[in-house]
Amino acid sequence: MKRSALSTHATRLSVLSLGLASVVALSGCDTLNDWLAPDRVNYKAAETAPSLTVPSDLSTADISQRYAAPPKVNSLGGGAERALTPAGNATLGVPTAQDPYGMHVENDGDRRWLVVDGRTPDQLWGPLKEFWEESGFTLKTDAPQTGIMTTDWAENRANIPDDWFRKSVGKLIDFAYSSGTRDMFRTQVERAPDGSTDISVTHSAMEEVLTGQDKTGSRWESRPRNPALEAAFLVKIMQKFGLTEAQAKQLVTDARPAGVKVAVEQTGGSSTLDISEPFDRAWLRVGLALDRTNFTVDNRDREKGIYYVHYSDSMQEMKKDGLFGKLFSSSSPKPTRQFLVNVRPKADSVTQVAVVDANGQLDNSSDAQRIVSLLHAQLN
User: Fold this and answer.
1) What InterPro entries does the record point to (predicted)?
2) Is pTM beyond 0.70 here?
């Protein structure tokens, strides 16, 4: 499944002398069972620091009740109290007859999201932030007011082959040993009309490809999102929320279908979409679909039904975010145009999606129509 070569290692060492650490991109199984295996995801690179010791010449301080920290008060912004499930789990979700674990997974094609019963986004934001940081990621976007949490680009160390070269030499230069891939994850947290919270994880990826006749150069190219990797992180989030690995995997396997009809309509020379479901659910689905295109959501206003998006160039994002910032030009990337994606009720069970201008009028530009086409493809 994985490949490596002596020539590749030799090339990498020569490239390291110039300041770039990289290896041949790895191929691997992308089935759900493979990605749910515990050893397929390993982004944590930090090591545990040695335990602190008290010098022998210092006496132990007097510890009495007056120095004890006050208990956490949930009403002042603390996390939600965990509930006990029939299976004995202390879970963040609120168990019900329909959801004995207090949560379930829904899917639309290869898109999956977690539904946590009886909890608001505010109550789950802290544990989600802890989850990504404990998983070895740095958060680039931490915006509870918009429900968007984005990691910086990171390397999955589990993708590095444990061959003889790494065992003998790699341990000495492991800091520079690269899998040739980078991943970024975007978490969208949305309040549902029934009081639950929907959590989705979207994967973006880049791959280093060797160039030149002698394979001495390289460039970064976009890779397709990996739905199985997204599901693997949903499993890990459910474990953070109190389920066992087996329970979380079963919920992914038993994901509830949530597909609906999406039709293209021509209005005044512009294309719009009609989604056969109420606004609350359509709003979530459009947000998920935007996450899976090359358009990034900068902000959103649920009351106005507006997603503010711009075209995202993954390579420019990597440069700007500083992954290889010191090795690239310091010139600022060109600003990109912002688009307004409007989600609005059209009938009792039909929601219209359109790209509009600042005045709320339909945007007839070719770029706007491209967004509509991409959304139609994602929603179907």
Assistant:
1) BamC_C, NlpB/DapX
2) no
